[in-house]
Fold this sequence. Notes:
The protein has 751 residues and is of the alpha+beta class. Among the domains are: 1-100, no CATH class; 491-606, no CATH class. The chain has 19 helices and 26 strands. The longest helix is centred in the middle third of the chain and has 36 residues, at 356-391. Mean pLDDT is 78; it is low at 93-251.
Amino acid sequence: MGVYCIVKSCNNKQGRPGNTMMFHRIPTKNADLMKQWLLALDIDPHTPVATIKGYRVCSEHFREDDYFHKMEFATRTMKRVLKDTAIPSIVQTGQSGSPAATDEPSDLQLDLPEVEDASSLFAGVPHSTPRKTCTAPTAEFKSPLTLKLTSPAQTATGTKPMIALAPSWTHQLDTATSSKMMATCRPKKSIIFHETPQIDTCEMDISSATSALDISMASEPASEPAADPADSSFVPDTSPSTSTTGSTASIPGQYRGWTERKWLVNESKLMELFQKCTFCGAAMCDVNQIVKTSGSMIRIIWKCDNGHTGDWESCPTVRGMAENNLLSAAATLFTGATYTDIAEWAGVLNLQLPQKTTYYRIQSSYLIPVIAEEYKKQEDTIKARLICQTLDGEGVQVCGDGRSDSPGHSCKYTTYSFMDDFTNQIVTFELIQVTQAKSSVAMEPMGFKKGLEKLLDEGIHVKVVTTDRHPSIRKIMREDFPNIEHQFDPWHTAKAIKKKLVLASNRKNCMDLAPWIKSVSNHMWWSCSSSKGDTKELLRRWRSILHHICGVHRWEEDGMIYKCYHTELPADVQRKKKWLAEDSPAYKALYEVCMNARLLKDLEQMALFKHTGQLEVYHNVLLKYCPKRLHFEFASMQARTMLAVMDHNENHNTQREIAKTASGLLRHNVVFQKQSKQWIARPVYQETTQTFRNDMMDAVIQRRLDPSVKYQDPSSHFKVPRLAANIARVSKPMKEDAIARHTSRFTGPDS
Length: 751
């Protein structure tokens, strides 16, 4: 016998031919979540758990945002997985967020013989005003909610009109206790009934359907304007909303997750909301109010003079932890900021934030593991594409470069990154601490070798590797990877040539060389880019600068006649140009630089014109997340590097477009270059995006909801290599001994 979907109006069956939908079990381990599922599916909450375990709900009753996609690395495919907090919200075809209507009679009993639905009062009113849609809470009612009044009491004429206040929902996410939805009295957008007899205040208990709703009625001052029956444009607001136009982000009482808008509120203005009871309007004194704080969350427990009590929290809690404490810590790390900067900014405003120790505990238990998991998904996707490229017989071409956290001879960390030349995406990186190598200088070759071996072990066929002209990396490529073609970056070579020419031009008898420095650098770029992989042609074009700079544009070489590729120069230009004489000191200095034996040999490894320019762009992004002037622990340094990789990969997979003005013109900034001493137009590109942060914010909440993740427990931390605690070569002395040996040049040893 097959398994059917438990939803009454659904006939889907598991195992039917061609059926690709998924069937999900009702979560029975989480009692609160199971109760919400049962309410949403109109199932008796008292059903035995053993019976509930046999129920299945098909995927047609969930929204698309209830799922997330997970990479199956073994099969190289993406798999849809239901989120842990998902609740069935589509129980009828074409309806979402509302339960199926039933024909069962209402459980609410009346004192009056007549029962009138509030919506029937306006049945004849045309709907000329659009209605905003509002997703209802996941609560189930056995019958439509109707407005019922208790017995009226005879009073004198002129009594105040009575109003029926629409309930506004407040949902608190807290797995430690059951989910709470409380109704609060709202003075506006209510239905006013002009009754001659006064109606006593009443409360209707519908706990049989749900314990989350409370509807109350209270008197309203007579100054409140009544509904004009002659106004045909008036349509009653059936869903609670705010006065914010065009936005449903601030619907009161609806929990919208971490994306919900948040405000800076002064404490004095906040306490004004607790001067009167929300149930009876009685005054509340400070004696009956208890104010508790937990980082960014404030909790107020109050009691009015008539005995009504309430417990209000400024934000939901996630398994007992204030959600805003968790989110503020996540937002700090995910944006590349540090706690010190944010805390200093908040301190000036006297804005409450979690303490420093709390922040770092949250970072270790929740934030860094979430970053590592999200980065692993992206890395697996990129590597799967490169593996498919290898299986198709296409070689992978990568470029690599290292970045140290301080000058190379005194750095603690070196990050060596590999980028795919085709997509400009970072494929992998290696973070090396100085204690892993013999010296600071040896960290870059170590990171290069470990990273390249990792790519090869993954089954990626690396065909070309482009790096700078680091001597140790040359040796590694020559001895350990002889089958991989090694190319040099022309930018580093051009920079070295330019530096040598500037030093030569500073000599007194070589000043005529200065105007030609930029032309020589540009000529090297042209030689590499136009040779099309022919090393001999590249060297011939590079040596042609020695003829051109003397004013010779046609010459004989190896029995053949060659000429410059530029157009024929006019006679006046040829005459006025400051050419160099072959016997001048400036020409000899240029000849010495251009014909350097090591340079000519290295030029042979630049014929493919591969460069690491995009890696320098990535290093600029890395500075945002890992500034060199700050020190981070190894786990934090690795997590911040992962953030930089995800940021770069999201924005540099394709060429960013130039931003446009309101009139459609391309935007440019005119800036003055200090080096060239010239004004240049620099294009302004569109702003980068960081959508990967949204998935990580969701994942942080999910990780906190996971009972297997233990706060402050090292077992929940991200695993990092076992490294030396510090870079010291000698053991740490006792604190008392270090204090005793301490001396100061201001006070002396005896002070």
